[in-house]
Amino acid sequence: MDGGDTMTTTIPGSLYGLPHVKDGCGVFGIISRDPSELIPSSMAVSGICAARQRGSRLGAGFASTVLEGGPRTPFRMKAFVRDQGTAQELASAVGSSISEVTSTSFSDFAGSAVAGMPMMEMTLAQPDLRTISGIVDRINSKLISGSDVSGRIFSYGRYTDVFKGVGFPDDVATLYGLQNDSREAHAWIAHSRQPTNSPGALPVWSHPFSALDCAIVHNGDISSFGANVAYLESRGYHSHIGTDSEVIARLLEVLLREEGLELCDALRILSNPHSRQLTAEARELLANYRNARLDGPFSVVGSYGTGSDCFLFAVTDRSKFRPLVLGQDRRYFYAASEESQIRSLSPDAEVWNAESASFFVCSVRRGLIASGTSRNLATRPLSSPAATKPARTSRTHESVNSEIVSHLGEDGEEMVVEDVNGTRFIGMGVSFGTTAGTKKVIVNGYPGNCLANLNDGGIFEVFGSVADDLADTMTDGKVIVHGNAGDVAGQALQGGRLYVRGSVGNRAAIQMREFRERRPYFIIGESAGDYLGEYMAGGRVVVLNLSRRGRPAGDYIGTGMVGGKIFIRGNVLPSQVGLLPLPADVLGYLDSLCEEGLLDRRLLGEGIDLSDPASIEKVLPPEVSSRVMMLFYNTRHSKRILIENRVLSEAEKTELSPVISDCLGSLLLPESLIAEVLSSEYSVISVE
After folding, report:
1. What average pLDDT does this structure show over 246-264?
2. For residue 657, what is the DSSP state?
3. What span, in angstroms and rounded, lies between the C-alpha atoms of 121 and 91?
4. What whole-number distance in Å separates Cα of residue 97 and Cα of residue 297?
């Protein structure tokens, strides 16, 4: 889970000496773009350890995937067992029901602080892939009696291998020798903690979870767990360790192997998008696999090997309540919880935010197959005179904030914070007091979540990109970001100015508000994700769309909006605004009115756009359209959202001109842009 509370005590035995983050999951994935190039295990270790603040000592792990002929071609099976006796019984069961066991090894990790159970590994003669998953399920069922787990087969396949245990990622990497490049693979995935809905303490509950040659790591919580388990049980699978993450891996294996679906179709089912986003063919696909669809907040990263190819994939939920960033450079593709993880390995990579209900797929042989976004959002770091390369390890927020307080006393006016890569909470709780507006903090690098939260008048300037929850509940001051910002930027923004040169993720300006003369301004240089201005109650949001993208904002703009204004340079469709009913539902209601004799059916052929309430009101009689509008607006609980495509009024230009001019100057952009920006046509979104 992301964004949970932090405990203030340090966990005994932690290798990091960092506070334990409750409900914080970190995921990471990397894949080679060249079949001849293998990735050393140390890169996976570095990528997941860059998100160490998301980890815990209760579980972590890695999975590798290779092509046919790679480092791991025999069919191998791994299991955690209680003791040598359980191992012998398991080997006998596997040999008699699955395939001949050609070799076994036994690693007694019980004395280690990070394992908790010994592990055995078996090499098998080629088993029957049509039956092996069912047999593994039956064997695993016999190893569990209530809460007593005597063993668990956790990895079996030819191309994918799993390395997991109890401990932080560094602990588990040390256990298997991964930090010393003892393993190489075409793809790696990694996770930083035990699943949220498991007790941890035993390695059977640690990520990754796998089924045959598919492995996944997962951040979130699956509320559809009961329906998903029922679907698997209907297919004959009854042994579950109790975590939703394992169920995701099992669902994928069923959809890919038993149902024969393509990977993109399987991921589309799991992502469970709103029907309004789908073609008729896609809606039929989802209807056929209703109980295999996932619900709840999640980001999933996985690897999949077929022998002839190797895939890295990622998928988000329909509202994207968990972070996921994607990236690429000339050698690799990446998926991660935070941009800092990718930057720790590739400072110059192109990085972008995944969208809601999206999936990302790339392979060693085919390259990028699905980008995880319908809008071209990939950007490289924006150059600037003060920009520096991020450090491979990050500083603690306590040390950074202590340095800010120390240097910006009554006499200090400006300071530069170096070596930042993933550090959270920079500036949070730092009060600028009576000197607010004159104190400036320059951050070089890629700070993590919660930069400048509760800012009461300071100036923060970031030469790089920022993770989620930027400037939450800021009341005064200024925040300048020369790169991109993640999800939930400007949440409850209620004063000051927030400038982002690049794009922002989902739910920017959610719950933004104003009071009397205090009006906040949020200027976005490029584009915004879904749910821009959700529950917005005041202030101004301006999307400048400097690159003139055809789709400068995502869907569900202004959902629940009750005040303020959103200005988006370019064309926004009515279907992108609010959470609208499906056109099919609107048509069904209109049909019912025709059946009741309240509406002339001939009017339905007058070119009505069923996704645009203004189009419906234009054609239908007032007494009928008022009833239809109740499908779009429940006037007891929300206000009606208005959208206008027009140039700015003189009053709006007068108000916005000094703010946009200050934004362009702060972002080192030419002042000459101001005339072009102010004379452009905007989609202006407000409420009645």
Report:
1. 95
2. H
3. 9
4. 39
